[in-house]
Amino acid sequence: MKITLERNPAEQIAAAALIVPVFEGEKESRFGAAPFVASGEVAGKADEFTLLHNPAGAAAERVLLAGGGKAERFDAAGLRKLVAASVRFLKEKNVPSAAVLLEANRTAAEYASAAVEGAILGDFEPDRHKTGNGKKTLESFAVVCPNGAAGLDAAVSRGQVLAESQNFTRALANEPANLLTPLKMAAAAREMSQQQGLECEVLERGNLERLGMGALLGVAQGSAEPPVLIVIRYRPQKAASTAHLGLVGKGVTFDTGGISIKPSEGMEKMKYDMSGGAAMLGAIRAIAQLKPPLAVTAFIPCVENMPGSRAQRPGDIVTTMSGKTVEVLNTDAEGRLILADALAYARRQGCTHLVDAATLTGAIVVALGHIHAGLFSSDDALRDRVLRAARAEGERMWPMPLDEDYKEGLKSAFADIANIGSRWGGAITAAIFLKEFAGDTPWVHLDIAGTAWLDEAKPDMPKGPTGLPVRTLVRLATDWTD
Question: Do residues 311 and 287 lie in contact, with contact meaning Cβ atoms separated by under 8 Å?
Fold first, then answer.
């Protein structure tokens, strides 16, 4: 998609469609919309669209009046969603190009960036493997800021980088497991790293054995597909901080549950169990282009969890890289096992702050539904940094408890720790397990099991992967100050 910034008056923009946000209670109207506003046909409610053809006073072939809800609640995140939904509406009508008008009170950099993000995110479709010529896409998109301040060109560029990186993550998460094995995920990471000037290292089985990563290897042993640990390093030319941010993402390319096998219903979606790892790849892709003065390394442990004849059994005891032993009571609690070794390795690599993301537990979906990701942290300052970044990017996260009392549920008579507790507070005990391997390093865990995938399409997004929390992680890195 070609992205441009236009500073001419809206009346002179010759796009196939000009998107004009309208709000509840607005009385003023433009481009011949007055009768529709007066009659109540255009009420400005969120996700309400009215398409005007050959509008009076406009060079555009069409004007799309796009409802934004209450004006006082409309922010950059709201604009991102409005533009994405508008793009999806226009694509269905085979409109080849579009522009969005940003009025004088919404021409700040954050709005320009959000508008571009919305257009690119809204254009994403999960139909890569469909054949035929019926695919619809938007060829070009313009942000119209007639009285825009300086710095908008950089904001537009930032928005494009963010959205393309989020779509990179979505495309990976949407790949079926026969086409995206751990080795093929490593190949995708290498290709992306080469394109972006990043250093990529792939640790294969021999390396993992020498490092003593028994937890990761135990999960992988039932599959014919070999495991890998992907390590991607971004180093700024001149660091402004002594901090070293480690991004750790769960990369289970398919999860049957292993011997503790999942029900067959819905198992096909377990291709997206590597969404946390894909998010780390997307985040560091954007970081490489935006170039914050902060060292960042991504760690993505990739395995396939299968119930083969050599598969890990309930009751097995594995020794992690940290030296701690784990009794595996349930082989479907595999994500925390591979993350345990990856977190320990990230600490050994000198990371001073850790953030992991994983489709870890169904329990977080019970607690928060599909609206918020669960956020757990051992460090209040890092927690607040991540929450600020999430709010700025419109990715909703909710702080969850991490009291030591919950550790009682992970006691084992036979090993240092068990990999599951009781059914109660399952998302919390999973986080408590990970905390053991993050040690005293400031750490945040994001459980994205309820937010990484949409079961039903929304006006602004199709069914499938969401790409959360790429934007939050990038904002965290780019806004970092000591």
Answer: no
**Residues 382 and 411 grouped into a single domain:** yes
Same structural domain for residues 80 and 46?
yes
Q: Which domain holds residue 49?
A: 2-144
Nearest to 472 by CA among 375, 404, 407, 335: 375
For the record, the structure tokens of 170 come out as 């979505």
pTM above 0.85, yes or no: yes
| Catalytic residue flag (residue 336) | yes
* Whether 234 contacts 284, CB under 8 Å: yes
| Residue 222 and residue 120 share a domain | no
Q: How many CA atoms lie within 13 A of 335 on its CB side?
A: 31
CA proximity to 298, closest of 363, 248, 255: 248
Q: Which of 336, 385, 435, 475 is catalytic?
A: 336
Q: Which residue has the tokens 């070293």?
A: 244
Question: Given 144, 175, 210, which residue is the final one in a domain?
Answer: 144
> One of 136, 190, 233, 262 is an active-site residue; which one?
262
The secondary structure of the chain in percent helix, strand, coil, rounded to multiples of 5, reads 40, 20, 40
84 shares its domain with 34: yes
Known catalytic residue: 73? no
- Interior/surface letters 367-383, b for 16+ CB within 10 angstroms, e for the rest: bbeeebbbbbbbbeebb
**Alpha helices for 270-369 (secondary structure H):** 275-290, 335-348, 363-368
Q: What is the pLDDT of residues 300-354, one digit of tens each?
A: 999 999 999 999 999 999 999 999 999 999 999 999 999 999 999 999 999 999 9
- The alpha carbon dihedral of 421, 423, 425, 428 has a sign of positive
Final residue before a domain boundary, out of 144, 179, 211: 144
CATH of the domain at 38: 3.40.220.10
pLDDT tens readout for residues 379-413: 999 999 999 999 999 999 999 999 999 999 999 99
| Whether residue 139 is found in the same domain as residue 53 | yes
Alpha-carbon dihedral angle through residues 306, 300, 171, 166, given to the nearest 10 degrees: 150
CB 136 within 8 A of CB 94: yes
